[in-house]
Amino acid sequence: MPVGENKIIRIIKRRRPRVVVIGGGTGLPVILNALKKQNAEITAIVTVSDDGGSSGVIRNYINVVPPGDMRNVLVSLSDLSEEEKAIFQYRFESNDAFFSGHSIGNLIIAALSEMRGNIFDAIQSLSGMMKVDGHVYPASNEPLTLNAEFMDATTQAGETEITGMHKQIKRVWVTNTNSSDEPSAMQPVIDAVMGADAIVLGPGSLFTSILPNLMIPNLGEAVRKTRAQVIYICNIMTQAGETVGFSDADHVRVINQHLGGDYIDTALVNGAPIDMTKFHPEDYDEYLLPVKNDFEGLRAQHCRVIMDDFTDQRNGLVFHDGDKVAGEIINIALQEMFKRK
């Protein structure tokens, strides 16, 4: 066995690779579940500016951080039985004006937030109850409001309202929903970023799931200062209201512009063709198209490119292949561990 491989094996025995995943939305649990199978030490930092669906209703009723994304992340890292996780995810079908459409997990998170006095401590308590393998941290301990400026210089507040404008977004920022205080992340969030081997951004909506976290001043500063490799999982498809016409280089450019420099070290981009004939006509959006590759644009931003068939195409939808993506992330994290040794 080569000498280098012996060293890596000794490092693996000493500790697991530390991977911090920052984002929100439906793509995040796919990657977290796959990383869990790779035996990584995982920290998920989850967006708290969602104002749609059940999360938005609960946020408006009892003024807590929206729980939906955190609920899904907790389940993805939980060692509970499938039956127990299904109960937590169950969504009411009642005609009751309040319970209809709400999941049990969202209500539990809201209740624990009131009992513990804040969302951060609530999620830590629930992580223990759900036997979570890793750490789940809200990006902020307070509800945040997403704000956007469009290319026509108009502005809009609120995630749902922003995407509903269907305008090209120039920049986004976050404000505290309930006060004029500057948004901030809790210290364990910052410590996780600074101690990581790899920081993963995405997959998820660029302007509404990824950037809101990076716009929290002390969290964005930690991503800029960390020694970890910063990895961006590029979306496979463009998204109406956010990234119409974007290439993979455009996605990276927007993140770098918001961070104020070339901070994305590696981009995982899909190189496989997408069979658009499999999309259901009733679900098809004319703006939903494969993200184009722009390798020169990525290299101009000093970004390493890893291209593969990262797709899981089934049921008329396109997902990321979690196992393939997680494998690349672990390889990068191990390389970073080896460099430090």
TL;DR of this structure?
The protein has 341 residues and is an alpha/beta fold.
Characteristic terms for this protein:
341 residues; globular; 14 helices; 3-stranded antiparallel beta sheet; Gluconeogen_factor; alpha/beta; Rossmann fold; CofD; 18% strand; LPPG:FO 2-phospho-L-lactate transferase activity; 7-stranded parallel beta sheet; CofD-like_dom_sf
Sequence-ordered SSE layout with sheet pairings:
Elements: H1 3-14, E1 18-23, H2 27-37, E2 41-46, H3 53-62, H4 68-77, H5 82-89, H6 104-116, H7 119-129, E3 135-138, E4 144-150, E5 155-157, H8 159-164, E6 169-176, H9 187-194, E7 198-201, H10 206-214, H11 217-225, E8 229-233, H12 248-259, E9 266-270, H13 295-299, E10 304-308, E11 311-314, E12 317-320, H14 322-340
Parallel strand pairs: 1-2, 1-7, 2-3, 7-8, 8-9, 9-10
Antiparallel strand pairs: 4-5, 4-6, 11-12
Question: Could you explain how this protein is built, in words?
Answer:
The structure is a single chain. This protein is of the alpha/beta class and 341 residues long. It folds into 2 domains: 3-47 and 139-340, Rossmann fold (3-Layer(aba) Sandwich); 51-133, no CATH class. 42% of the residues lie in helices and 18% in strands. The protein has 14 helices and 12 strands. The strands form 3 sheets. It has a 7-stranded parallel beta sheet with strand order 3-2-1-7-8-9-10, with helices on both faces. Strands 5-4-6 form a 3-stranded antiparallel beta sheet. Strands 11-12 form a two-stranded antiparallel ribbon. A hairpin with a 4-residue loop joins strand 4 (144-150) and strand 5. The radius of gyration is 20 Å and the shape is globular.
